[in-house]
Amino acid sequence: LTARRRAPSAASASRRATRVRAQGINPEIRKEEGKVVDNVVVSELSKPVTAYCRCWRSGTFPLCDGSHVKHNKATGDNVGPLLLKK
Amino acid sequence: LTARRRAPSAASASRRATRVRAQGINPEIRKEEGKVVDNVVVSELSKPVTAYCRCWRSGTFPLCDGSHVKHNKATGDNVGPLLLKK
Ligand code: FES
Ligand code: FES
């Protein structure tokens, strides 16, 4: 018998969807660190408003550089920054 | 001719991988909002340290409830909170 590839079943589609949902959310930032935690001493904030990234796509992480806009457009996601106000 | 499902090509595998990487990172939080932005007036922080979520898995979002630990373990990711210190 020749091996035949089976058409994807509902079960395998479901497993695939589950695996996709269980993926990481940070593709690149500080992957040498086991857990990326940042500290802000709020008394040292200089600007009236400072935006901190929560999308893990910023080129200036932990600060937000607006990259969440591209991420949301590409994926249909709805994430945005945390705004620290003095 | 009967339609035949083609075996996955390297190109389709590549497209699939690309699509997976371009997925959203927030599965559930405030999906009725186009962009989830939160404000913190830092002068109103009450505790010496307050942890804010960046993993989009917290049950107390925008605060961190420790859910990043389960997310990191399940996915191999390395995300963690932003700590605001008075
Ligand atoms: S760049 Fe990540 S939230 Fe803005
Ligand atoms: S629960 Fe999301 S960073 Fe801690």
Give a written overview of the molecule.
2 copies of one chain form a homodimer. Chain A is an alpha+beta fold. Chain A is built from 2 helices and 3 strands; from the N terminus they run αββαβ. Chain A has helices at residues 10-21, 67-75, and strands at 36-41, 49-52, 79-85. Chain A has a two-stranded antiparallel sheet with strand order 2-3. The model of chain A has no long low-confidence stretch (mean pLDDT 86). The interface between A and B is large, with 46 and 46 residues. Strand 3 (79-85) of chain A pairs parallel with strand 1 (36-41) of chain B, so a sheet runs across the interface. The complex binds FE2/S2 (inorganic) cluster (FES) (2 copies). Residues 53-55, 57-58, 64-68, 80-81 of chain A line the site of one FE2/S2 (inorganic) cluster.
Q: Measured on Cα atoms, how large is the radius of gyration of chain A?
A: 20 Å
Q: In what range is the share of β-strand residues of chain A?
A: 15-25%
Helicity level of chain A, as a percent range? 10-25%
- Give the topology string of chain A: H per helix, E per strand: HEEHE
Please, what is the average pLDDT of chain A?
Answer: 86
Give the terminus-to-terminus CA distance of chain A. Answer: 72 Å
Look at the helices and sheets of chain A and give the structural class: alpha+beta
Overall number of strands of chain A = 3
Runs of chain A with pLDDT <50, length 5+?
none
